[in-house]
Fold this sequence. Notes:
This protein has helices spanning about 20-30, 40-45, 50-55, 60-80, 90-95, 110-120, 145-150, 165-175, 190-195; strands at about 5-10, 15, 85, 100-105, 130, 160-165, 180, 200. By secondary structure, it is an alpha/beta fold. The protein folds into two domains: about 5-15 and about 85-210, Rossmann fold; about 20-80. The strands form two sheets. Strands 5-4-1-6-7-8 form a six-stranded parallel β-sheet, with helices on both faces. The chain is globular and about 55 Å long.
Amino acid sequence: MALVAxxxxxxxxxxxxxxxxxxxxxxxxxxxxxxxxxxxxxxGWTLPAADRMAMWVHDRQRAEALAERYxxxxxxxxxxxxxxxxxxxxxxxxxxxxxxxxxxxxxxxRVAALSTLRTLGLEQHFRVVVCEEDAHAxxxxxxxxxxxxxxxxxxxxxxxxxxxxxxDVAAGKAAGMRTAGALWGTVAPEALRAAGAxxxxxxxxxxxxxxxG
Length: 213
């Protein structure tokens, strides 16, 4: 059966947020006397903010406080450091014109997710945005994807999950969805290739071949 809906991750999929995330994490941790390496930051790429901070700070309450500071810092940096991927806006417009139902599933907090989408002029394309606060567990748990499908009123089997991380692929598979790996934005291409996505895409416009209209 033909796919009717498409869900997107944000970081590394809809938006090139890497520089803003790296700088925000680094600034907040350096204020605590911690200097994170790029490899450490990259290893926590798909984690919610507090879980990411807990990689360095093992007191949960302190990690939550640092996560709040991280989000504030990210929001301040995104105007200058966050960029759309080439062809993404056009691809979303074409998918929407073909009647594809679009949504977002991200581990970002809602304030950061919506701000990023608005900053890049992408928010209007999506019927639903599922964020960290909405589901009981983040990806790779299928819960946020299933919640998005429920809110969109589409069967998971007719839905495609697009993401740059292995957690996106794992969550999609667990939810009974088809999956596509976004090679254009991943920070871990080998892990993404090994995750077993149904499709591996080099550029956003390759999505159009999966929704011929």
